[in-house]
């Protein structure tokens, strides 16, 4: 049985499965089979030592990953997967609280609340006791509470909270929320890890009991652990050698939610006598994709050196020079249509971007070209809350009788109309037969302060024909305090979304001079209903998602969009650690491609990350035609071109020289005719004579 478990594993994977004598850190590169190592190791330990499934603990970050591990272990052992202790950190913490929570004063009636309920509770506290704050403060305070609990900080020391970034009122809100939890016997998600850590740190008997139960511990995605999760692992394992941590420092991209790469980099220090094994055989991508990704990530300093190797070769990586976001979306649509016609084996296509705001141009272009798509783990652009709130401002300006937009504005934005005022206003509106906004203007004129938001909105209603819609919206967003509120909460993604909306409206105005405002909303409505109407009607061949949401996924073709100075690295990330995390994010995005990787600039200012990659590891393309022609089936190519991608001559030989042509892209020097003239082979143009005295080429 033990030998059967090892079958099909490569030498490094076998070594990782067999090592049991000391703590083990497995550096598992992208697509290297880390889940295979974890599940085979569980099966091997059971076969070798006869452990009960309940004696082995495996923790990961998502229910999907935990369920996949259970099914794989069941296939290897034939044991009921429910007998295994394979779960998320939160599920493990909840089990500990249910079993040992009495040590901290918790009885069996305590329940778990989700993030939505937590925010509602905090909002109610703010509304009842801190009326000088608006409702949007709740989100900011909840994030601070989560960060505090992640570091085992609770509100028993207000001065310490202030030192950690809480205002005095925020510390008091935290204290009221904590009191509510005690009175109503409810844990939030952060409690499910922090409280078990506090319990195990304070009660050695429970530490010993869990150590006796869990004879071996395996941790998945170790680079993503936050301080709480790491402390929980340490508390359970103690000084025993029975731990395997599996992770990849090159895929550590979640510092913004508390994860720390330090735990992976300091593993040998924290677990003395440990062993390090690297999984460098990739089973997903082509060598061309890995060469590009390896050369990208090697510039990082906070990492353990490794070089990923592929089992297959394929097409070159293309860097598509696109001058704008619109150009980028158009060329992506061109390629998708070509692939549908001639290379369905390279479908589906994933378009990855740094932030959700970048999806708008792709959504708009794909709607226009009738390309079915799905947004993974995200909302269509015009369904996002901040976009609906912004459009409600504009709609109310254009139509004061739009009560739905008025209600959205006063309920979502800090415009000086509270709940009591709104109730009085609704009654007035019904009694007088007036729209809500007109009732406010007629019977509560004190709300229309000179130069205030409502006064400005009323002025625009009278002069609607005198100003562009984009200017009206920009002014109202500024006057309402909406943008300032988002800035105070550091909601950069929402601010970027609003900026994209303003750019969208400006572009529409340029393309449709003199058109009535209703035409703009018709366009938005049709785009939204087009998205909704696609569901279930067409096979999805295109996915839109952020780079963060792409982690753990793979696609035949990946277009990594917006690799320019604004978005990669993200413009507000300046520190060395932040820049290195941005580079890791680009690496993660690139290694999602199993067959074809296309990098698009989306701007005339490409990312500095591209400048750091050897030009011989990618081909520049200035038109999508050159890319799609190269990807065409063999029987549709010019005889001078390679018949299949894997027949491409290697591009890294020392005796080969290349040039970059401003029109034709990268080409290989076949022969020199004189000091200026060369025969150059271009992958999509064949051989051409180029006079470098006339054409400004770059020698690579």
> Which ranges are low-confidence, i.e. pLDDT below 50, for 5 or more consecutive residues?
530-537, 637-655
User: Helicity range of the residues?
Assistant: 40-55%
Shape: flat
Q: Give the beta-strand count.
A: 20
Strand content: 5-15%
Our measurement of the CA-to-CA distance between the termini, rounded to an integer number of angstroms, reads 55 Å
Give the helix/strand class: alpha/beta
What is the residue-averaged pLDDT? 85
Radius of gyration: 29 Å
Largest sheet: 7 strands, parallel
Question: What this model shows, in words?
Answer:
- It is flat and about 85 Å long.
- Helix 4 links the parallel strand 2 and strand 3.
- The longest helix is centred in the last third of the chain and has 20 residues, at 492-511.
- It has a 7-stranded parallel β-sheet, with helices on both faces.
- Helix 3 (34-49) crosses helix 4, helix 10 packs parallel to helix 12 (227-237) and helix 16 (325-342) packs parallel to helix 30 (624-630).
- By secondary structure, it is α/β, with parallel strands linked by helices.
Summarize the SSE layout with pairings.
Elements: H1 2-6, H2 11-18, E1 24-28, H3 34-49, E2 56-60, H4 63-77, E3 85-88, H5 89-100, E4 111-112, H6 115-129, H7 137-150, H8 158-163, H9 168-184, E5 186-187, H10 191-202, H11 204-213, E6 216-219, H12 227-237, E7 243-247, H13 262-265, H14 267-270, E8 275-279, H15 287-297, E9 318-320, H16 325-342, E10 349-353, H17 359-368, E11 374-375, H18 385-398, H19 403-412, H20 419-432, H21 436-443, H22 453-462, H23 469-480, H24 482-488, H25 492-511, H26 517-534, E12 542-546, H27 547-550, E13 555-560, H28 576-590, E14 593-600, H29 608-611, E15 619-621, H30 624-630, E16 658-661, E17 665-672, E18 677-682, E19 686-691, E20 698-699
Parallel strand pairs: 1-7, 1-8, 2-3, 2-6, 4-5, 6-7, 9-14, 9-15, 10-12, 10-13, 11-12, 13-14
Antiparallel strand pairs: 16-17, 16-20, 17-18, 18-19
């Amino acid at each position: 049985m033990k030998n059967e478990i090892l079958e099909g594993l490569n030498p490094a994977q076998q070594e990782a499965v067999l090592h049991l004598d000391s703590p083990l850190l497995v550096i598992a590169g992208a697509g290297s089979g880390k889940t295979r190592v974890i599940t085979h190791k569980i099966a091997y330990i059971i076969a070798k030592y006869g452990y009960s499934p309940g004696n082995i603990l495996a923790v990961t970050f998502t229910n999907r990953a935990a369920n996949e591990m259970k099914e794989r272990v069941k296939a290897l052992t034939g044991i009921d997967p429910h007998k295994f202790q394979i779960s998320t950190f939160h599920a493990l913490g909840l089990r500990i609280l249910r079993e040992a929570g009495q040590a901290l004063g918790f009885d069996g009636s305590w329940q778990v609340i989700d993030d939505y309920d937590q925010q509602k509770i905090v909002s109610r506290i703010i509304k009842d006791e801190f009326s000088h704050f608006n409702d949007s403060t709740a989100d900011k305070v909840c994030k601070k509470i989560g960060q505090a609990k992640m570091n085992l900080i609770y509100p028993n020391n207000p001065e310490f909270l202030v030192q950690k970034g809480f205002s005095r009122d925020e510390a008091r809100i935290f204290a009221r929320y904590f009191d509510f939890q005690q009175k109503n016997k409810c844990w939030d998600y952060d409690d499910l890890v922090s409280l078990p850590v506090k319990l195990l740190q304070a009660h050695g008997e429970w530490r010993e009991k869990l150590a006796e139960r869990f004879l071996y511990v395996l941790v998945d995605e170790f680079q993503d652990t936050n301080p709480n999760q790491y402390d929980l692992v340490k508390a359970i394992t103690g000084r025993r050698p029975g731990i395997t941590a599996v992770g990849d420092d090159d895929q550590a991209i979640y510092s913004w939610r508390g994860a720390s790469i330090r735990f992976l980099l300091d593993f040998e220090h924290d677990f003395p006598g440990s062993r390090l094994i690297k999984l460098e055989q990739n089973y997903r991508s082509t060598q061309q994709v890995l060469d590009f990704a390896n050369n990208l990530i090697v510039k990082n300093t906070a990492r353990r050196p490794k070089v990923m190797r592929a089992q297959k070769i394929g097409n070159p990586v293309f860097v598509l020079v696109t001058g704008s976001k619109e150009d980028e979306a158009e060329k992506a649509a061109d390629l998708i249509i070509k692939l549908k016609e001639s290379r369905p084996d390279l479908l589906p296509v994933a378009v990855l971007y740094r932030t959700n705001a970048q999806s708008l141009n792709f959504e708009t272009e794909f709607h226009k070209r009738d390309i079915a798509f799905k947004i993974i783990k995200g909302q269509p652009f015009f369904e996002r809350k901040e976009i609906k709130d912004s459009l409600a401002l504009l709609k109310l300006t254009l139509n004061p009788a739009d009560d739905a937009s008025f209600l959205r504005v006063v309920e979502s934005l800090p415009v000086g109309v509270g709940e009591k005022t709104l109730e009085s206003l609704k009654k007035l509106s019904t009694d007088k037969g007036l729209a809500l906004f007109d009732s406010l203007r007629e019977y509560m004129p004190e709300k229309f302060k000179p130069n205030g938001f409502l006064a400005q909105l009323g002025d625009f209603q009278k002069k609607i024909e005198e100003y562009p819609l984009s200017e009206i919206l920009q002014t109202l967003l500024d006057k309402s305090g909406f943008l300032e509120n988002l800035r105070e909460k550091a909601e950069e993604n929402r601010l970027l979304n609003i900026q994209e909306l303003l750019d969208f409206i400006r572009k529409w105005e340029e393309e449709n001079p003199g058109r009535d405002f209703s035409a703009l909303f018709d366009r938005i409505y049709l785009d939204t209903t087009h998205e909704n109407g696609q569901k279930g009607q067409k096979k999805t061949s295109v996915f839109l998602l952020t780079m963060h949401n792409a982690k753990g996924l793979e696609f035949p073709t990946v277009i990594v969009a917006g690799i320019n100075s604004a978005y990669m690295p993200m413009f507000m990330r300046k520190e060395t650690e932040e820049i290195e995390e941005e580079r890791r994010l680009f690496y993660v995005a690139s290694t999602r491609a199993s067959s074809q990787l296309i990098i698009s600039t989306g701007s005339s200012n490409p990312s500095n990350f591209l400048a750091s990659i050897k030009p011989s590891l990618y081909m520049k393309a200035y038109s999508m035609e050159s890319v799609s022609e190269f990807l065409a089936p063999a029987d549709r190519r010019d005889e001078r071109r390679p018949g299949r991608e894997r027949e491409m001559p290697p591009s890294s030989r020392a005796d080969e020289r290349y040039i970059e042509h401003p029109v034709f892209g990268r080409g290989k020097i076949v022969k020199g005719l004189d000091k200026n003239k060369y025969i150059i082979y271009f992958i999509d143009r064949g051989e051409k004579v180029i006079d470098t005295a006339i054409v400004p080429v770059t020698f690579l």
